[in-house]
């Protein structure tokens, strides 16, 4: 081979090797795109409230949100690598300006993929804890860009890839639809109680047939504060005791909760005839399918701050179960409550009668409070409860009938609605495809006719985005039909009006809840420090002889990690009353923030 031939072959070989390297790298980028697609397939399943896919596995909605966060983060990482790698290949090929703005007639639409990636990055950045917790409004409103994200993903990936993620989107659409219908019509807050620690307890109307388990949560929207924001709160009452009411306690720290507190406090200066009514939309309640805490011989409850609220419903339920003698209940309970100020102890007002009067010898309740930011005062639990129990009650007005909370739809009805939506969707997809998308046989026939005729040219192939638009249209029509059926079923179920309880009756009930017969001396209050959890665990294990113990914690993440670590440590062989036993500790973490 001559030098001239080598000089001609060398550039060709270099181009071939460069093209081969780019092709391999582009294939790797495509694989990362498929990984992002797999994450998107599962992304919406953990945040289904009404359908509760994760509840089958025993995972509550508040806990399943973390899986949504993990999947979203993984999806953004894979999608960013996919998009950045594609742009890199375009850049070294010197055609990035042509490709980046191209809207192809057929195949993948690159511009739609770029819009999808940018939208996803914006949603992910604003969902970081630093922004979500301090600027919740920004996180909430920007997260609604998921509609743009899904639509442009469909245009970018095409209908074949979209069918892979469609089940999650389909279930999310039905779940969203049912939650919107459940929150209609709006009801009113019956009354509110203002605590000295700047917390407010809301009393809401409930249908007598609605039953929920302790530690359940509801989502509230108050249109007079915001027409779009929903906030979750733990229910503090028991459906076994309160047939027509449910209550939640709101700690007023943020902008939304502070606005609620100011609105209710303004009602104290208003005449009874001019009392302001506060409409409220409610979703839920959502909670565990069973009361797992009743299966334990003993309970160790650890709460921090407003994390006490789910434990209030547990105490109410256990007291109701004991008084009605139904089933087994834990024989011993130890409540550890960590607060910053002593006035926060006032949140225990609704269970003060249980704390200061042991209802029966069958079960024993002990309270141990740790006040971290105050020095020793020498006050007892009874004295502090008496000082902080001076709550102010505000009876709010109403306009028209009060609609009771009926709760989410039953599983059977949800399944039927999902089946109707699926049938309608597939029927319209098939019809639209037969009408607007030519089949292969028709395309071949039209091509033969065009070739045989010199005057007519063959018709161009339909753009790929036509099929995408047909999918979106079919999805919207199926949701519209399901909405009509769900509204009819809902209005047949909703009662038009519930009987109101007079203010006098409610005041009697409130006074009865705070009556005490005598303080229990064993309740303890510690000032100026955090609890030594290891000593608490050791002492409780000795008192219970290492029996079947359920450990429930609700509070900051640091508190949860400390309790979880101790549960794992104490589950090993342990000396109890000079005998080596292996206690059984079952750890459960409850969330009060999403």
From TrEMBL:
Residues 173-292 form the FAD-binding FR-type domain. This is Ferric reduction oxidase 8 isoform 2. GO terms for molecular function: oxidoreductase activity. It is found in: Membrane. Keywords: Membrane, Oxidoreductase, Transmembrane, Transmembrane helix. The chain crosses the membrane at residues 32-57, 69-89, 109-126, 138-155, 414-437, 465-489. It holds the Pfam family FAD_binding_8. One of its GO terms (cellular component) is membrane. It is a multi-pass membrane protein. PROSITE patterns: FAD_FR. Its main location: membrane.
């Amino acid at each position: 081979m001559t030098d001239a031939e080598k000089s001609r072959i060398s550039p060709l070989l270099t181009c071939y090797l460069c093209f081969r390297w780019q092709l391999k790298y582009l294939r790797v980028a495509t694989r990362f795109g498929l990984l992002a697609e797999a994450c998107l397939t599962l992304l919406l399943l953990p945040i289904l409230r009404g359908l509760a896919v994760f509840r089958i596995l025993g995972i509550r909605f508040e806990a399943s949100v973390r899986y949504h966060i993990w999947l979203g983060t993984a999806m953004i990482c894979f999608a960013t690598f996919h998009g950045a790698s594609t742009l890199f290949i375009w850049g070294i090929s010197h055609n990035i300006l042509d490709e980046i703005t191209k809207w192809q007639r057929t195949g993948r639409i690159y511009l739609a993929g770029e819009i999808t990636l940018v939208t996803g990055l914006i949603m992910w950045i604003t969902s970081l804890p630093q922004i979500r917790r301090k600027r919740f409004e920004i996180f909430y409103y920007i997260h609604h860009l998921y509609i743009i994200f899904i639509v442009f993903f469909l245009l970018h990936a095409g209908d074949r890839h979209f069918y892979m993620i469609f089940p999650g989107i389909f279930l999310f659409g039905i779940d969203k639809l049912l939650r919107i219908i459940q929150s209609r019509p709006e009801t009113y807050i019956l009354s509110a109680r203002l605590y000295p620690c700047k917390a407010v307890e809301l009393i809401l109307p409930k249908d007598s047939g609605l039953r929920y388990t302790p530690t359940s949560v509801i989502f509230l929207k108050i249109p007079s504060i915001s027409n779009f924001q929903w906030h979750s709160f733990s229910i503090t009452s028991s459906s076994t005791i309160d047939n027509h009411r449910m209550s939640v306690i709101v700690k007023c720290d943020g902008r939304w909760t502070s606005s609620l507190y100011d609105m209710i406090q303004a009602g104290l200066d208003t005449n009874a005839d001019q009392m302001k009514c506060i409409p409220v939309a409610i979703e839920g309640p959502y909670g565990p399918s069973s009361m797992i805490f009743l299966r334990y011989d003993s309970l160790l409850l650890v709460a921090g701050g407003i994390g006490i609220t789910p434990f209030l419903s547990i105490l109410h339920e256990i007291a109701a179960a004991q008084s009605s003698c139904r089933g087994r209940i834990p024989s011993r309970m130890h409540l550890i409550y960590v607060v910053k100020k002593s006035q926060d102890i006032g949140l225990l007002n609704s269970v003060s009668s249980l704390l200061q009067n042991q209802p029966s010898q069958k079960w024993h309740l002990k309270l141990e409070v740790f006040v971290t930011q105050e020095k020793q005062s020498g006050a007892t639990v009874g004295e502090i409860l008496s000082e902080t129990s001076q709550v102010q009650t505000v009876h709010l007005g109403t306009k028209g009938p009060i609609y009771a909370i009926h709760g989410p739809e039953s599983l059977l009805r949800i399944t039927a609605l999902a089946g109707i939506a699926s049938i309608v969707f597939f029927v319209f997809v098939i019809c639209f495809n037969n009408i607007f998308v030519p089949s292969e046989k028709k395309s071949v026939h039209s091509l033969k006719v065009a070739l045989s005729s010199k005057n007519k040219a063959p018709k161009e192939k339909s753009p790929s985005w036509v099929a995408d638009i047909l999918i979106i249209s079919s999805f919207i029509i199926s949701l519209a039909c399901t909405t009509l059926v769900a509204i009819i079923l809902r209005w047949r179920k909703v009662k038009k009006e519930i009987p109101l309880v007079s203010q006098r009756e409610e005041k009697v009930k409130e006074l009865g809840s705070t009556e005490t017969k005598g303080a229990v001396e064993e309740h303890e209050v510690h000032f100026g420090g955090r609890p030594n959890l290891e000593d608490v665990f050791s002492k409780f294990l000795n008192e219970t002889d290492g029996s079947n113990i359920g450990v429930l914690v609700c509070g900051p993440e640091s508190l949860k990690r400390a309790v979880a670590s101790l549960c794992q440590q104490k589950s090993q062989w342990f000396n109890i009353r000079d005998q080596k036993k292996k206690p059984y500790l079952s750890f459960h973490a409850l969330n009060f923030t999403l």
